[in-house]
Specification:
Largest sheet: 8 strands, mixed
Order of helices and strands: HHHHHEEEEEEEEHHHHHHHH
CATH architecture of the domain at 256-407: Up-down Bundle
Oligomer: single chain
Number of helices: 13
Radius of gyration: 22 Å
Amino acid sequence: MNAEPPTPTELRRRASDLVPLLQKYSTWSEENRRIHDEVIEAMAAAGIFRMRTPVRYGGYECDTSTLLEVAAELARGDASAAWVASVYWIPTWMASLFPDGTRDEVFGTADVRICGTLSPTAMAARAPGGIVINGKWSFITGAWHSQWQECIAVVIDPTGPPRPVVALVPMSELHIVDDWQTAGLRGTGSVSTIAQDLFVPEARVLPLEVVMQGKGISTPPADVFQPQVRMHPLGLVPGGHDQPRGAEGSIYRAPLLPVASASSVGTAVGLARSAYEVFMERAGDRKITYTDYAHQLEAPLTHLQVADAATTIDEAAFHAHRLASTVDAKAAADDGWSLVDRVRARADMGSVVRRATDAVAVLADASGGTSNQLAVPIQRIRRDMQALGLHALMHPNTNAELYGRVLCGQSPNSQYV
């Protein structure tokens, strides 16, 4: 029998306890462009990688509100470590929708780490008993410490239209390209991976549209993808006791994009909070050069900057918590998701990133010339925040436009809703 999962409060405490270790290795991770092994081991020991694993496999099945707070705590220590954990949570959730036999294989490894992407940048062809994949995926966060990758590929079938699928692949069967040379989030190790004539058995393949909806292949929404989900992605009807059905918990009842959005915003909130903490710690001993202010905290300008940043961080947290609470409540009630609900999730994510970016910029601009030194954390926080805001799924303007389009009665110009 599995032990009772830790409470959200306990998991947040564990994450908070990791902050000194994350800070200790943050410079090493940035210089070496990957998370330090000791940090990975410590996060595993704290249960960070079990938070989206099904309870039946020793996981915690945490809701997204817990993910938000844990990631925010981790980001106070190192945004790269927080982002790696957040990215692992999403493919782990996706893997939980696969057939029992596949889940037994993947989750048979304790504290399994699954990396991946939502970009269909590889092609696949049908083969006896599975598919053969060829292609490359970029921005594969945490690849260096993963055992599996969730790969998106487009199956080309002469008998029908191309179909995007999700395939679970052992990292040992992929080639890693060490090409992560960036200004921000350097420690995430978001390298590229390549598959060359890689065979994936059908048990480890699901249609992307099924995973986008959550619930697994045997419990799809009643009217959205019914024609497709009656069939295996390879055109075969699943059967026997191993029929795909997905994990049992309520957290697996939400669509993928709202889940991914809510799983991602904690790092942005934590970065903004970290910037505030770092600024306030330094400001007490700083004067404003070429002025008569002996202490920066005496200046009215600083008062305005601190108030602006604190209020903006509160606004970021509001949108983050609204997003997570919506995902959790709808999942628990098994409610449907309207198109407006879906694009609002993307909009909330963009609003978190926009406000967190603004708050970090205010505090970084108020930190003086000495803050440009690499030993001062605010400069890394700013670079990490900028990198996070450039992520295609999190970009504030992209998400705001999508939300506005739908509010104005236009169809969404993205399938990622």
